[in-house]
What does this fold into?
Amino acid sequence: MEPFRVTILGSGSALPTKDNFHASQVLELRGRRYMIDCGEGTQIKMGQYKVNVSRLNNIFISHLHSDHCIGLAGLISTMAMLGRSEPLSIYAYKDLKNILLPTLDYFTDDDSFEVIFHDINPKKKEIVYEDKALTVSTIPLKHRVPTCGFLFEERQGERHLIKQMIEAFDIPIRELKAIKQGADFVDKDGFVVKNERLTTPADVPRRYAYISDTLYTESIIPQIEGVDCLFHEATFLEQDHRRAKETLHSTAIQAAQIAKKAKVKKLVIGHYSARYRQHKPFLDEARSVFENTVLAEDGLIFEL
Amino acid sequence: MEPFRVTILGSGSALPTKDNFHASQVLELRGRRYMIDCGEGTQIKMGQYKVNVSRLNNIFISHLHSDHCIGLAGLISTMAMLGRSEPLSIYAYKDLKNILLPTLDYFTDDDSFEVIFHDINPKKKEIVYEDKALTVSTIPLKHRVPTCGFLFEERQGERHLIKQMIEAFDIPIRELKAIKQGADFVDKDGFVVKNERLTTPADVPRRYAYISDTLYTESIIPQIEGVDCLFHEATFLEQDHRRAKETLHSTAIQAAQIAKKAKVKKLVIGHYSARYRQHKPFLDEARSVFENTVLAEDGLIFEL
It folds into this structure.
């Protein structure tokens, strides 16, 4: 099974600190990279954690608060300076291009690569992107500005050929594609070999859900039910649950409650308020509700 | 003598690395802070090096390449979030406001503090700012876009009162201001006490010159002659002197040649290209020409 890797570039929130930069994550699957959010210093973290800017062609922005998108200008300037030619697609609420274009136009040459803005409607659940590796859907959230999470769903892969059987039946290469997709094999004499004898089942597709800034909301549960990994913001500890509600954020316990109710396999929490020096209490509080929780920290890498 | 402190927030160049962020420095004198340039992550470095955002009311931008100004949006957003009310003045080439305003308008509330853009003409040598502590003048440079350095000149302070003499002559408090400014004291019987008996000379005003991105240019020498400290960019080593010329940058040796010809007291070099992993060769090359050289590194603090 090919790795489906997540790198946390930034695990902080509005006020970035030296240890917890603004929000940003990179997903890697089948040779492609996908970025979620891009706060200040994202390009620095990519260098630090050896996440190459090549093959990063799609960036998904959950909402237009500066700690989730203000690093785009620097990242794109650097891509231009490094001589990128491939277009870059950015999926975000419609206002982004108006904010970003004056900066990009100034800092990148006219003959630089193209940046394509895809407007997304954070209020709607819909597939906003798909390629051979995965699909990406929006997950409407409740925050102070239009905000959505993203669900990354790996596409169903092909069945795995059983090499010895393919050789035993002397099956021509031209037939293999259909067999990997489930076809039986019929030889020139009309003899049928059932697909189940030639292949083993495809890997179960993996799913990663990214829940950006949001008030506790159970409306997201049907979309994220049973995902392999849920990232859920946990800006506050329980002692500040009122502040969480006022600012339309979640606590660690609320993130864990969502994980539990959605029966996810693993929970990663992050987006810590800079008021807390230690993150261990976030882990303790979340684990009191949902055991399989880990803390996001800048530089954390995990696989689904 | 009150400290005149310089903190290097970022000592890198176009491609920021984890150890050398984009350009930014903060000067502190008589309770005020002044920022020079503001690359990506400047607000993070301020937190890391405990440089408070309060009493930072003036930011000087040498030129509009992203590594010198792209951190302004994040810094200003954060100031707004922290409830700043004082206006912030930014001195930069005229295009800055067009680049920055769409972002600021979006990310800061309408009732936030005012950001005042002061257009500077990088081609002219002129005083662009003055307060009770110092004056700031532009130093025209030669780079790919309109660029200037800045000369920070401490104002002549007042003479120092000799406490015993003031007491001995029983001089009223209301007279002290004039005496500190050089006046003699005349008592009610017309007896004159010469100022030299009552005071010691004022401190010699200090000068700091910041030479941002530039091709080697001796035209700056008259302005920076004899300064207490010269920061001069040194993007390249001698082995890449052709690349320095092509990109309108300087080598470490060229920075040192300027320091020597301008008879400055101390040279600080920085703005290293990310191609070099070690900076010791910059120091060695510069010191071969000008002994009193130090390397800028993120977090370096020194006093004039």
User: Anything to note?
Assistant: The interface with chain A takes residues 14-18, 21, 40-41, 43-45, 47-48, 64-66, 70-71, 73-74, 77-78, 81, 95, 98-100, 102-103, 106-107 of chain B (CB under 8 Å). Chain B has two domains: 4-157+203-303, 160-200. The two ends of chain B are 10 Å apart (CA to CA). Residues 160-200 of chain B form one domain.
